[in-house]
Every structure is written in structure tokens, then in C-alpha cells.
Amino acid sequence: LESIENLRPIRFTLSDLERITDNFSKVLGTGGFGGVYEGVLPDGRKVAVKKLESTGQGKKQFYAEVAILGTIHHWNLVKLLGFCSEGLNRLLVYEHMENGSLDKWIYQDCVEQKVLNWEQRMEIMLGMARGLAYLHEECVEKIIHLDIKPQNILLNEDLVAKVADFGLSRLMSRDQSYVMTTMRGTPGYLAPEWLLEAAITEKSDVYSFGVVLLEVISGRRNFSRVSEREKFYLPAYALELVTQEKDMELVDPRLKGKCDEAIVRTVIRIAFQCLQENGSSRPSMGKVVQMLEGS
């Protein structure tokens, strides 16, 4: 970690983190790379401590997250406050997001949360877009996230959306147009170029963002098994409705029609622009931000 010692995140000892998490007693969530625990810093600030499993992939992921998050700062990106690397123990300390991840708020089958109104959904979609536009267009090196999905969008106490989980990200120098990389990300959110083993660009994130837009609009999961033989895939269902000029049937019924039809139609069109099969036909995230702001 010598190369990242001089960055802003604080280096914690393992005993520091055991103390602030009460020995990792309160679990906030679990993911593919380990658990996330609630902690409280001596100054009273709540934090989320991510404990990575000691696997080869986990180690790579740890260095990726610290290197990336230590150098970038944006209102719509989760802030890395510190890290710990002791023996096989690798932990990341993030700002705590009071309202958890987006998936707990948008799906119709999530009964424990209140329903987000259309204005809140628009702000969340814009926040995600701004965070991604910053990663792609405003950092010294272009950063491709590679795993955009509702579980990786966190909400603070004011429901401000922040992009999280940079463990799979790839850095690209500005003169690099693409990267070749092994398949990563989450099925259902992967752009077609992954399946074609083609070069990956920031437009792969744009595709994933398009899928999440449809989920936020509809309150439906992007992929589910209806029966033994039948599967439901949200983009295909949405396209069918739009083709039949039944756009408004896509909208989450829990909104009870309390949304501006023209704006909803515009956002659905933006989602489909993001879902173009050919990456070069998809808009940049900066353009997406402009379109969403204009709607």
C-alpha cells in the first residue's frame, strides 16, 4: 500500500475497527466479497466498515477501491474515509448511508419501505447519472465502474443517491479508448459487448444505467422467473409496451398516476437510448445528465 499512503483516507488498525464496530456485531449487509458492519467513530460519526474475504480476487478489489476512492470526491459518490491492511485482514471504512441501497426502496415486493414518489425517483436517477458522468468524464483518469445495479447505489438520510462499490472498476488513461478485461459485473445488467467478448468502454456502464432506469420507473426487478418455463426480462417487456404505445403501463402502479406523463415518456426514451445494442450509439453519461435535467 506504499503508493497510496499519502492519500486522504486514514489508515486504521484492526483493533481500532474492532473497537468502533463493537467487534463487528451490527451487520449492515453482506456481498460477494464479505460483510459490511456499522461503526461509530470517536467523533460520533457513523461509518460502514466493509470486511473483505481473504481471497486473491478480494485483495485485488481492495487495492482497486482504495486507489480509486482515495483520489475522487463527488457529492454522488460514496466517500472512503479509511482502510486497514493487517496480515490477511483488509477493511474499508466508508461514510454511512442512512437509507441503505436503492434495491430496498424501488421494488414492488419490498413492503418495509415507504413508496418513493416520482420527484424522489427523478432525483435519484439524476444523482446516479451525475456520479457516473464524473467518473467517466471529470476524473484525471477515466473510471469505468463495471457493476452498476441498485445494490450498488446507496441513499443518504435525504435520499441523495451515491454510487458505491468500486471493487470491479477499471482505470483508463484519457487516450485509451477501451479495455479488454475478463467478464465481471452482474447478469441482467451486462451490456451485450460482454457476451461478444468485445472491448469494454464506459458505454458498458451506460447500458447498465439504462436497465436501472427502467427498474426505478417500474418498480420491477429486471429479471425474474415467472414459471418453470417462462422468464421475465424487463427491457424486453418495456420495449413491447413502448412499441404498442402503452408507455404509461410501465410506471410503478404504487405511484397511482401521480407523475407527469410527458416527463415519464422522456425518461423511458432516455433509458432506451442507453440500452442501444451498439455501444457507440449510446449517449455519454454527461449527455444523459443533460437530457434528464431537460426533462
Side-by-side strand order of the widest sheet:
1-5-6-4-3-2
Reading off the top of the CATH hierarchy, the class of the largest domain is best stated as Mainly Alpha
Rg from C-alpha positions? 19 Å
Helix content: 25-40%
**Overall CATH architecture of the largest domain:** Orthogonal Bundle
Q: What number of structural domains do the residues give?
A: 2
Strand content: 15-25%
Q: Kindly identify the CATH topology of the largest domain.
A: Transferase(Phosphotransferase), domain 1
The largest β sheet comes out as: 6 strands, mixed
Q: In short, what is this structure?
A:
The protein is of the alpha+beta class and 295 residues long. Helix content is 34%, strand content 18%. A six-stranded mixed beta sheet has the order 1-5-6-4-3-2, with helices on both faces.
What does this 3D model show about the protein?
The chain has a six-stranded mixed β-sheet with strand order 1-5-6-4-3-2, sandwiched between helices. Strands 7-10 form a two-stranded antiparallel ribbon. A two-stranded antiparallel sheet has the order 8-9. The N terminus is likely disordered. It is of the alpha+beta class. The protein has two domains: 94 residues, Phosphorylase Kinase, domain 1, CATH 3.30.200; 192 residues, Transferase(Phosphotransferase), domain 1, CATH 1.10.510.10. Helix 4 packs antiparallel against helix 6, helix 4 packs antiparallel against helix 9 and helix 6 runs antiparallel to helix 8. It is built from nine helices and twelve strands.
